[in-house]
Fold each of these.
Amino acid sequence: MSFVISGATLVDGTGQERFQADLAIADGVITEIGKFDIGEAMHVKRADGLMLTPGFIDSHTHDDGYLLAYPDMKPKVSQGITTVVTGNCGISLAPALSDATLPQPLDLLGPKELFRFKTFASWLAQLRATPATVNVVPLVGHTTLRVACMSDTGRAATRAETEAMQQLLEEALEAGAFGMSTGTFYPPAAHAPTREIVEVGAPMKARGGLYATHLRDEADHIVPAMEEALEIGRELESLVVFSHHKLAGSKNHGRSSETLKIIDEAHKTQPVCIDCHPYPATSTMLRPDRVRIAKRTMVTWSKGYPQGAGRDFADIQAELGLDIQGTIDYLAPAGAIYFLMNESDVSRIMSHRLTMVGSDGLPFDSHPHPRQWGTFTRVLRAMVREQNEMTFEQAIHKMTGLPAENYRLKNRGLLRPGYCADLVLLDAERVADRATFEDPIQVSQGICDVWVNGVHVWNGTDVTAMRPGQVLSRASFDRTN
Ligand SMILES: [Zn+2]
């Protein structure tokens, strides 16, 4: 199948200035860019007045199970995303060895039935057998390995448990994982000392792979937590991805100048990068430490009190007449949105040259954080068009060329002959997120067409029936060949 997109302005993903050109696609690959003879038999898509960019790469997702349950991936393709990085914050769907009840935060990835893959390879095989609309860059989570290998996660791993986790990581890398993530902020990994993570991660030294970290602390003790992550990166000789970089709690607001300086300094001697989303609120499981430092907490889902989803925690607490812990116990297990960041920190972090855009969305929440549906279009509306915090070209680079370089995606992330045809056609004047904290399940506006591997998956109002997504290859990470 070959076609030409004609008349669009191209923003190629490098951060360089836009230019006018036609672009030809054949068999899922960009074949030509510029002015060329369009053969008569070729299908021509007119795109005058629109911008053509590489497909967006969502650098930080929890879509591991959603890809299988809802392969049309509407929350993602509707905002121009063509590739998702899964397995962040220490939690991946596979390998799931235990039949015990799912500890939080693993349940953020979806219902227990989805945790049916005993090996990383079997999950990837399922994704290949029943592909989604989007491509996948899979990471394996250290918390998932702990839950699989340890009888009690409330302590450091024993030698035998560490070796068992190492073995599972080795298998996951062999199967195609791009690296390992950790989430020592969360109970099942909070007792893992630095040494354990370095030892479990040892197979990455031989095989390559990146290290994505949800820091142990994003509040008062963020600096030692960052130093720990940098040390792990050096030990494993891995790129460190600072996940959803933020400063939580009002007494830490403004400290992004300090943390970005640490990252800049580290960047001189070791590979580092950042992902972040453009909202002043975060979302995860319901926990007292977050409720206490947040200006406002909204419940996103609750097993104990399902009607609480979408309501303010403070209102539920007043209604129940309980203290914070009592209210949490009543709602548990549950998730929440916490308004605990400062807008200027968010802007400063997003504008940093090493920052990629990552939604961190939680796809199964009944009243999710709007980032699942609106992250990329919000950057283009609010940060580019309304607030002028970066150019359109810089924003597109953070969504395409930069993550493709960090995750070493072969022939992706740029508009170049020979590159895969992951493409977005959008109206730069109209593009906007519509998802809000009150009404979070809303498609964006101004995303006119999306192609994944040359196949049309979004027509401006809805998904098509096509599922061309691929599990991308980690080949470029391999140190062995
Ligand atoms: Zn996280």
Amino acid sequence: MIYTIAYSTISIVILLNFFEMGGEMIDKILNYKNLTKIEIANLKKKIMQSNDAQLMFLYLYFIDHEHLEDISIKMLKTGNLRYIHFLLRSFKVTNYASIIEYILINTNDAKYLYNILYDVDYLDNNCRLQIINKIITLNDNKYLLKAIYYYFVILNLYDEKLFDKLQTLCQNVFTVTLNKDNYKSILDNLVHQKIVDPKGFSPNYYEGRNGHIPHLIVCHINNTYASAIDHFYDEKSQVSSHYVIRQDGHIKQVVSLDNSAWANGTSLNENSDVYYKFSSSPLISDVKDNANYFTFSIEHESFDGYLTNEQINSSIKVMKEIIQYLKDKYNYDFPIDREHIIGHNEINPLVRTKCPGSKFPFDEIIRQLKS
Ligand SMILES: [Zn+2]
């Protein structure tokens, strides 16, 4: 009995210690420049003993990229698949093959697997095929098609066995006949399903701007126009954007410019993955409020940030409308530069590493906007 009490007292002490640790530790990680070398070493020791994948990831992300391999092994031991995903997409992990192996054994979530395939752009083709093959076994056609489209069309890879599987799948499930001349366009049609634009605005927004003059335009990508519209008009999804621009340049406004869309929120809670101080832009990390209140969001249909000419023209058209709106409503001259026209990844760098993607034509858009 005495032993039990003593034991539980120790547990409570440890628990309390941990409890106060999370937030305090994150603060220390973000302000590590004020710490001495010894203090950083102690911080690392504490984090590595904590079994807390989030803290390990933050430590790696903000302070110490050098011990990537050691820390990734520690992170794998926590079994926290969410942060293992964060790890893989933020860093080029050399032992990724064994991590993928672990993931394939430990999850049956097709969406998670697709996200690994999509977010981790340095995987070798063998790993990619293993992931796609696992998704095939899961019978989730939405992510299966996206995964195969990503492999054949976006990555421009080819695999005979995968082609055969796709051919059978198309015959049995989608009742289309697929051959080597038409497979890319058939995949394109299956993935980019047509959708009728809903009337009016989305129910997902905050009224007004919480006292801010919105001063940033944020660029996003979404794999397909249909999935963006589906999501943005679904009350349960809790997401939206001011505009969505389809590959053919069609523009759909989803939220009024007077209101705040739910596209790139930041949190004041330091334990959140979208803590405002994580932002790489001082125009965000210096403002202690949800970034949705002072931003405009434009979503573009794209897998990697590549935009068609029609999309570039539409994006510029929409940005001009926003700039004029700011002049009319707030007498604010919007500065046309890279500090004020930013990517989602600059606001939520931990969770949105691939939005709007490496091919997004910021310079071209800014150049044309200025002229
Ligand atoms: Zn985004």
Amino acid sequence: MTDNALGKGSVTITEEAFPLGRDSFDPASGPTAWLWRHVLDVLQAEREQISARPVAPQIDLARLRSAVGLYDFDEPAHPGAVIDDLVELLRDSTVHTTHPRYFGLFNPTPTLLGVVGETLAAAFNPQLAAWSHAPAAVEIEAHLLRFLGARMGYPAAEVAGSFTSGGAEANLTAVLLALTRMWPGYGTAGLRALPGRPVLYASAESHLAWLKIAHATGLGRDAVRLVPVNADLRMDLEQLTARLDADRAAGDAPFLVVGTAGTTGAGVIDPLPELAELCRTYGIRFHVDAAYGGVAALSDRLREALTGIEQAHSITVDAHKWLSVPMGAGALLCTDRAGLAETFRVSTSYMPADIPDTVDPYTSSQQWSRRFAGLKLFLSLAVAGRSGYAEQLERDAELADALRAHLRDSGWLITSNTSLPVVCFADPSPPADSWKHHTELANSVVQSGSAWISPVRLNGHAALRACVISHRTTPADIDALVQAVNDARRTA
Ligand SMILES: Cc1ncc(COP(=O)(O)O)c(C=O)c1O
């Protein structure tokens, strides 16, 4: 990192005069064009150089803070130099999710069209609270939701929902909708109006946003029953049934079962048809958290793994996960337009009046003012086509299969079984502190800079986890990962 703060460092400042201060808000076309060209050059260089860089640089915290702190904003600075400064900070102090050997959290390298879509959305900046302010944007998002909902198996014409900041907000929306639908008095009188304590059920391998949601909604964290999983890491139906019965007998009020389609740790899909049937029997709601796994529905080949998802009252799916658009964009899908309207109803004198046959997003979602999250997905999907996406998803799944085979050949134990590209593997003969051992193996790989993987605990057992999700990843990157974990084990 160089000391380029305030644009006075080693960056060559272009001769093109760029207005500073207030005049920088909206410069004339010459300087504007120069700035975009500069950004394009920076992005092009990033793209060309990324695979040669360490996936996760070593962080020097003191240096990072002092470099950021040099900006006191008293003096205007040249945008070229500031951008170069920022790029250097990002390059030196970021885990590179756009790297072909980032096998990390479920954040694929964004598509180019996704990045362009994000830029267009920012530039037009439509206000998505009210339909009348952003008819094109609202209709584009509604069209996307219908497309996604139809791929999940909902009747397209009935699909309702909203774009969200991500999966956690979509799951929150599902809980609010479920409470509102189960107990019409909930919206006005709150939890104290309910006949017993509302409780919800998700597998012990589910994403723990459920705890934060229970905290935020006043249900309380104890209201989340984390149901044990079987040896295959899927929710144990017998234990679920026993827990439901016990809770009812104790006077609690079960209201929601969550099936996870692609658990965060292992990419495993809960038994969705059985969960749907059980929820019908108990007269309670069924939600599927398919934050990343749901995107498999775009591939005719992978869709089968999601059978049963269409029976859910609501579904979470994230565009910023396997649909490869920049963060943040998630979605809540359902077929209950009226339920959403009841959950988020509000009317004010300062919002524009309703327009017949349209829905104001602020009356059917948690957010009010909102960015145009759907544009990047629309653009990316329109240009790649569903077939282009299907090809990429299937390629990820094939590379993950290849990785599993290579790991087996190298003596690793594959510890989960899924058609999604989440590969969990373990040292078959770990020392007594298996968690420490696997954490050290992951750290060693990350510190080598050659790849990014993480340790994971699956049903109490330590393992390593690699998500194969970047369109930049090649078979050579898979080989490099196997080499890196083998080296780590050899030197452990
Ligand atoms: C299954 C699942 N649900 C929900 C979430 C939360 O999604 P987000 O981070 O987009 O809020 C995640 C994130 O990894 C997840 O894996």
Amino acid sequence: MSDDKLIQLLRAVKLRPTISRISVMRVLDTAGGEPLSADDLFRRLMEQGERCNIGTVYRTLQQCEGAGMLLRAWDDAQRRSVYRIRQGDAGGPAVCLLCRGCDRSFALDDALLYEHLARVMQQHGVRVADQAVQIEITCAACPRIGYAS
Ligand SMILES: [Zn+2]
């Protein structure tokens, strides 16, 4: 996604395209759907030589999530919130597969699957918030598959 496109997206949700918002969105866009925590984002921004502080990253994430540009999910293993860009208008919350072996994640933007999962969870007395569902898996290509318990 070009910076112009990111600026367009920010304007579309009535957020002023500040440098920190564009930078954060650019890192999330480059991550290609991989959910990132505020710490991940901060580290990547620093690696790219962007001047920022962790407080700004948190605030930016909250604003972009509040505006509906980002989806937040809870990474239970690492006890932290992770974020990714909400894809398209009809995208809505999605399902994210997270490999417990190699930590790779696979975002599935499948509204039907999400609805089905939400319904099944409800039958088990679990209500999901309007956010991505994470499912832990061990992927077939996992180099650490032998160590998975
Ligand atoms: Zn794996």
